[in-house]
């Protein structure tokens, strides 16, 4: 099983308009993530760090799937909005898939730049390989290893969850902290990324693949995030 990890990171030299306290918090989380994921990277076929600049210039509103909630404000107190940070994150995920999903791998595992292990290194590696082998055996398309949240299509999405062995079969998942894409989805997801309008990336996956492909999750999340400032939502968040 050839699993390639792509670690989505921010260029540490491009602070843009974040205050020093905000940027130090963002970089603290990123450095913890690099330290955490770096410890297990040698156990996988390939590990790549993909650096992106903080996005403060591009929004591409005319090509957004939900333009009515786009704001040009860099911070926003509204409950639902998408802005520069969401587009930058979407492009980071898109570029990782378009540029790193080489023909020699079975699974592309994408990990966001503020993600750390929530289990031991041994258990993380074991869960990733078991999950990816399971995904391959079931001819599935996607698997998440993070906390599973759901969109609003079904008021009780837990009705759609089905236990399959040591995993859950799910209709879709939010968020995209750490997730696997199987090679059987490669051509389709690349086609959609090149042709469908953009959204926050987890919502984009929800809108494009909800109940359309087989996807799974671990029973319990195996990754989390350090507390600190979110470069996408522009606020402090607590996770652990």
Explained architecture:
The protein is 30% helix and 21% strand. By secondary structure, the chain is of the alpha/beta class. The chain has one domain: Spore Coat Polysaccharide Biosynthesis Protein SpsA, Chain A (Alpha-Beta Complex), CATH 3.90.550. The longest helix is centred in the first third of the chain and has 19 residues. The protein is globular and about 45 Å long. The model has no long low-confidence stretch (mean pLDDT 92).
Mind sketching the topology for me?
Blueprint: E1 3-10, H1 20-38, E2 46-52, H2 84-100, E3 107-112, E4 116-117, H3 121-137, E5 142-144, E6 162-164, E7 167-170, E8 178-182, H4 186-195, H5 201-209, E9 215-218, E10 223-224, E11 228-230, E12 235-237
Parallel strand pairs: 1-2, 1-3, 5-9
Antiparallel strand pairs: 3-8, 4-10, 5-8, 6-7, 7-9, 11-12
Short description:
This protein is α/β, with parallel strands linked by helices and 240 residues long. The protein has helices at 20-38, 84-100, 121-137, 186-195, 201-209, and strands spanning 3-10, 46-52, 107-112, 116-117, 142-144, 162-164, 167-170, 178-182, 215-218, 223-224, 228-230, 235-237.
